[in-house]
Amino acid sequence: MSFVVKIKSKMPITTFIIVSVIKTALVLFVLLTAVAYTVWLERKVVGHMQNRWGPTRVGPFGLLQPAADGIKFLFKEDLTPPHVFKPLYIAAPMIAVIFAVTSIAVIPFGNWFSVGKFRTPFQITDVNIGLLVVLGITSLGVYGVALSGWSSNSKYSLLGGLRASAQMVSYEIALGLSLVGVLILAGTFSLRGIVEAQAGHFWGFIPNWFIFRGGQIFAFFIYLTAAYAETNRIPFDLPEAETELVAGYHTEYSAMKFAMFFMAEYANMITVACLASLLFLGGWSGPLFGPGWLQQLLPLLWFVARVFGFLFVYIWVRGTLPRFRYDQLMAFGWKFLLPLAIANLVITAVVVVLS
Amino acid sequence: MLHLILFSVFGFVCVAGAVNLLLQRHPINSALSLVVVMGSLAVEFLLLGAEFVAAIQVIVYAGAVMVLFVFVIMLLNAGEEERTSGSRVAWLLGIPAVLAGMVIVCWALLARSNAGVAAIGALPGHPADIAQLLFHQFLLPFEVTSILVLIAIMGAVVLAARTESVARSKRED
Questions:
Q1: 3-state secondary structure of A288
Q2: Which of A137, A148, A204, A235 sits 20 to 30 Å CA-CA off B143?
Q3: Does residue A158 belong to the interface with chain B, where contact is any CB pair within 8 Å?
Q4: Which tens digits make up the pLDDT trace of A254-278?
Q5: Rounded to an integer, what distance in angstroms lies between the CA atom of residue A218 and that of residue A174?
C-alpha cells in the first residue's frame, strides 16, 4: 500500500516534531493557567455581582488564590470510599480531563508565525475536518460525567450522572445543527478555513463575520445556549446543583479527582468560547499596526479578547439567572432549540442557494 | 511502513476490545469495550483516507449510540452476569465450527481478484464528494433510511407509552 501525505509546509520531519512538541507544551501550559485563572475570574465577578469582594487576601487582588487552591488540592486527603466501583471511579475524572483538554489541539489562535524562512501557524494542527473533531470530542466527554455518577454507587451521584448525560446528549444535537449554517456559508470544516472565509469588510466598516454578513445571529444564540447546557453551567447546572443533589456526579470525589472535574468543566468552557469566536465572530480579525513582529502577535490579542468576552458572559449569566428545572430543561432543548436550529439551517440553505 | 504499523495496532485493539466485550462479566465493562471497538474502527477509516466517515463514526457511534447504551445500563442497574459451567458441545463443536466458517469466508473473499488491497483515497473521502453522492446518486436510500429510523422511534414511543398506561390502569383497579 502506498501512502500519500500532502505535507503543506516544506519542513523536515524532525523540525516538525520539535515544533509540534513545543507548541503542544505551550498551548497546554496556557490552557491550564487559563483554567485556573478563569476560576479566579468567576469568583471575583460573581462576588462583585453579589456586592462582596471575592478572594482578596492571597496576593494582590487575590491573584495567587488559584495557586493556593492547587496546593490545597494536592495535599488534601484522597479518600476512596469503599462502596465505589474502583476501576471506573478512578478512570472517570481522567476521561473527563483528557477529552476536555484534547480539543484545543485543532483550534487556531492566530495567523501564521514566521521568523526568517521558518513558518508555522498559531495552531497545533490544522485538520481539514477540525470542526467535526471538536464535536466528536465533545460527544465523548459525556462519558466522564456518566461514568463518574454511576461508579460512585450512591443515589445522589447516580441521579446527577443520569441527568447530566441525558442533558448533554440532548443539547449536543442543537449545538451541532446550529453550526451547520456556518458550515454552509464557509464551505469547509477546517477551522482556519472558516476564519479565513470571514475576512474583509462590507459596507465599508462592518466586518464580514458570520454573525453580521452571514446572518447567523440566531445560530449564535442557539449555539451559546446549547453550549451552556453542554458545559453544565447555570442556568443548566442541575446535575451539579448544590441545593438539590449534594454535589451531583462529583459528590463522592475528593482532592485531586474533584479538581480534575473542575478543570474539565472550565477547559470545556474555554473551548466553547474559542469555537464561538472562531465561527461567529471572525476569529482573530482586528486592526493591525506596528512593526512586523507586533503584527504577528496582535491577532492573538484580538482572539484572546473575544474569548475573554465570552468567559465574562458565561460568568455574568451564572451570577444572574436561576436554574432550570429538569423537565423544563429537556423540553427547552428538544421542543424549542432543536426546531429553531433546523429552521435556521433551512433558511440559511435557501438563502445560499438563491443568491 | 508506519501505515502498516498503525493498521496492525488498531486492528489488534479493535479485536481485543471485541473479545473483551464477550469475556467481561459486568455489562458496563462490555459497553466500554464496545466504545473502544468503535474508536479503533474510526481510526481504521482514517487510515483508509475516509476522514469524514471516521469523524462521523466517533460522533454518532462512540459519542451517541454507546452513550445511550451506557445510560440504559446505568438506569436499569444491570448487575454482573452469572456464569454457568458452560456446555461441552460449545467447546468441542462450536468453536472449531466458527473458526472453520471464518476461514472459509476469508478464503472466499480473498480469492476474488481485487480483494485484500485497499488503496487510500480510492473511494471519496472528502465531505463534499460524500455529500454529492449522498444527495444525488443515493438520495432514495437516504430518505428511506431516515423513514425507517422514524418508524423505529415511533415504535419505541408506542411501546413505552403502552407499558405506562397499562401500569396506570392496574393502579386504578
A1: coil
A2: A137
A3: yes
A4: 778 888 888 999 999 999 999 999 9
A5: 12
Burial tier of B168 (Cβ tally within 10 Å: 0-12, 13-18, 19+): exposed
Residue A300 distance to chain B (closest CA, Å) = 28
pTM above 0.80, yes or no: yes
Q: What is the ipTM of this complex?
A: 0.84
State the DSSP string of chain B.
Answer: -HHHHHHHHHHHHHHHHHHHHHH-SSHHHHHHHHHHHHHHHHHHHHHTT-HHHHHHIIIIIIIIIHHHHHHHHHHHT--PPP-----HHIIIIIHHHHHHHHHHHHHHHHTSTTTT---TTSS--SHHHHHHIIIIITHHHHHHHHHHHHHHHHHHHHHHHHHHHHHHHHHH-
Average pLDDT for residues B113-117, to the nearest whole number? Answer: 65
How far apart are the CA of B93 and the nearest CA of chain A, in angstroms?
36
Cross-strand partners of A201: A207
Q: Supply angle C-alpha A116, A119, A122, rounded to 5.
A: 130
Interatomic CA distance for residues A139 and A230, integer angstroms = 9
> For A272-291, b where at least 16 C-beta lie within 10 A, e where not — what string?
bbbbbbbbbbbbbbeeeeee
CATH fold of B1-80 = Four Helix Bundle (Hemerythrin (Met), subunit A) (1.20.120)
Cis peptide before A235 (omega within 30 of 0): yes
Closest CA to A143 of A183, A185, A84, A91: A91
Per the CB < 8 A criterion, the answer to whether A104 and A271 are in contact is yes
Identity of the residue in A129, A147, A158 whose CB atom sits nearest the CB atom of B55: A129
Strands (E), chain A: 112-115, 118-121, 201-202, 206-207
Express each pLDDT in A79-121 by its tens digit: 888 888 888 888 999 999 999 999 899 999 988 888 877 888 8
Interchain contact, B67 vs A150, CB within 8 Å: no
Q: What is the pLDDT of residue B31?
A: 93
- CB proximity B131 to A under 8 Å: no
By C-alpha distance, which of A249, A234, A263 is closest to A66?
A263
